[in-house]
Amino acid sequence: MYKYCCRHWVLGVVLLAAIPGIHLVFSQSRVHFLHPHQRMAELLEHTQSKSPVVNATSTQKTSLIGVPNFGRVTPTLYRGGQPTLEGLRQLRALGVEIVINLRNEQNEIETERREVEERGLQYISMPWNASYPPDSRALRSFVELIQANPGKKVFVHCWAGRDRTGVMIAVFRIAMQGWTPARALDEMEAFGYGRGTRRFRFRHLKAYVERFPELLSRDPQLCSLQLTHYDGATFRVLEKSSIDGSQCVPFTLSVPDGPSTVSDRKASAGEHSPH
């Protein structure tokens, strides 16, 4: 008897679904019949609730020949993946003066150094293996490099412009522009962070960004960054609040005329990290 009723119930649902304009929505124990307008409204609501929201002031993802995953973070800060020779030419034409390389393959570092300097650009190497969390000193070096060159355009990249570059930009957003970790992570994901199996492999990077506000207040290498704010055009010093300046380790980034390498993790500098 039960099987007989079930067969007829299923047949009735199938016949109703075949009627034009009728849409069925299944819940745990009910079948809801929706008018086409209700169906459209539900789809829009579902789409809006699932789509990542990135504020209009977030990085403008655009295209530049020879530079994958390219985007403009601020009027003077750009991000992307490994540039080709044509990409370097395009960056120079864009007005970029400083190129920051986050990749940690030694042979690639030296090759790019020659290519960048041959085109009259300044080259800064900050090697970092994405299998590990970033070093606080390197993060501070990155932010203070931007601070020390307010009128110069800077391009930062790793291999794909997703993970290492994503974290650097997220840190900049949180420390200098007051973004929340959630908002910074939305921007990271918009540029490809954590897609596929890499979400599990590099989950420690997400965890790092999530706890960065705490590190910003407790890590002696980072706490002084809270005293500066970037409004998109200029840096300004904020009034000291609850920050104990005595706990901040004095650190001044010196950007030489020639090439520079910033890394405290020399042991991992030779490790290969394709991301």
User: Counting H and I runs of at least 4 residues, what is the number of helices?
Assistant: 10
CATH topology of the domain at 60-247: Protein-Tyrosine Phosphatase, Chain A
Query: Which bin fits the share of residues in helices?
Result: 40-55%
Give the CATH architecture of the domain at 60-247.
Answer: Alpha-Beta Complex
CATH superfamily of the domain at 60-247: Protein tyrosine phosphatase superfamily
Largest sheet: 7 strands, mixed
Low-confidence stretches: 13-56, 235-246, 248-274
| Terminal-residue CA separation | 60 Å
- Specify the oligomeric state: single chain
Structural class: alpha/beta
Overview of this structure, please?
With 275 residues, the protein is of the alpha/beta class. The chain has a domain of 188 residues: Protein-Tyrosine Phosphatase, Chain A (Alpha-Beta Complex). The protein is built from 10 helices and 11 strands.
Strand and helix layout:
Layout lengths: L1 H16 L5 E4 L4 E4 L1 H15 L9 E2 L9 E4 L2 E4 L4 H10 L1 E6 L4 H13 L3 E4 L10 H13 L4 E5 L6 H14 L3 H10 L7 H4 L1 H8 L1 H7 L9 E3 L4 E3 L22 E2 L14
Parallel strand pairs: 5-8, 6-7, 6-8, 7-11
Antiparallel strand pairs: 1-2, 3-4, 4-5, 9-10
Short description:
With 275 residues, the protein is α/β, with parallel strands linked by helices. The chain has ten helices and eleven strands.
Could you name the key traits of this structure?
disordered C terminus; alpha/beta; 275 residues; single chain; seven-stranded mixed sheet; globular; two-stranded antiparallel ribbon; Protein-Tyrosine Phosphatase, Chain A; 10 helices; 15% strand
